[in-house]
Amino acid sequence: MNTPLHGLKVLDMSRILAGPWAGQLLADLGADVVKVERPGAGDDTRHWGPPYLKDRNGEDTEDAAYFMAANRGKRSIALDITQPDDQKIIHQLAQKADVILENYKVGGLKKYGLDYDALKSANPRLVYCSITGFGQTGPYSQRAGYDFMIQGMGGLMSITGEPDGMPGAGPQKVGVAVTDLFTGLYATIAIQSALLERERSGQGQYIDLALFDVQAAVLANQATNYLVGGITPKRMGNAHPNIVPYQAFATADGHMILAVGNDGQFKKFCQAAGKPELADDPRYATNPARIAHREHICAEVAALLAANTTQAWLDLLEPLGVPCGPINSVDQVFSDPQILHRGMRVELEHPVTGTVTLPGNPIHFGRSDLNLRQAPPKLAEHQSEVITDWLNGD
């Protein structure tokens, strides 16, 4: 296959989500990713169910759907890092690897001789990426870190949820583990950058990634609203701190998103809604003015949208280029014709179930291919195969 990372070898010693997400993306891009798991138990997420993957008879297997989310395209081997014989095998694999991914606690692998310093002497071209909650240094470095607590500590929950005084008010986490996912994406970027730099220097290097750092970074405009503007962001429900109207509104039969991004779009909306005078009102004519009068203009827009159905508004506004959309459930997302057209629902062969349906990869290259052929592996499915390929091959 004409995959961008064909020929690269990745030893994925990570668990749960952030590291495995990076490993899955590298596998999608064509790397040979070998997942090292605990004998008998495997990755913790194999047991994070229900739901579990079902076999051909409709019975639950030992693998949870959660595990399926982050381990596509990998080969699995089972090694006990506390055992000298298995440590020796990992050392041998590391000598062949281009990349190692791990997310053990700080110093967790050093006592087994599997840290970067112990492995780089035999393989100076090794790119070694460590993912932890708080990084390898600093006053919190010894703390364990999980996505949920990092969303709280990293400020995300302070800006997510209904504002104080509203029904249902209080901090909320995001519905998926976004800090883990963002960290996996940053890890993938860092690894590929280190591999590119290796082409110039001939040397690998160590990468230190922390969930806490990543969460602070991806506060994005909310962070700069504070750092540049001195404004501490608050929870605003579905509203946007810098653009109005840009939120969810009730319609006659449900809810929809209206995401007006500029004054021209606002004018088009007002004309379509039969209230062109709103766009000429000095209180609403510009985005700064609408922010200053947020409560009043949102009340006007809410009254207009409540008078018709979601689909009627979509049919009216989409041809005018006014950004809007429905609020889909997950089942609606994966039956959406655009999602299906873009290949975001894939069927992969699986030795136990026959096939498994998974989300696709959103990257579309002009020339290169993605490797979306191999389902997440059974525990130790490729033990002898990997040993043969990596240690007895070229």
From TrEMBL:
Q: Which InterPro entries match?
A: CoA-transferase_III_domain, CoA-Trfase_fam_III, CoA-Trfase_III_dom3_sf, CoA-Trfase_III_dom_1_sf
Coiled coil start-end: none
Q: Which Pfam family would be a valid example here?
A: CoA_transf_3
Among SUPFAM superfamilies, the record links this protein to: CoA-transferase family III (CaiB/BaiF) (SSF89796)
Q: Please provide the record's keywords in A-Z order.
A: Transferase
Entry GO MF terms: CoA-transferase activity
Annotated protein name in UniProt:
Acyl-CoA transferase/carnitine dehydratase
Instruction: Say which species the protein is native to.
Output: Simiduia agarivorans (strain DSM 21679 / JCM 13881 / BCRC 17597 / SA1)
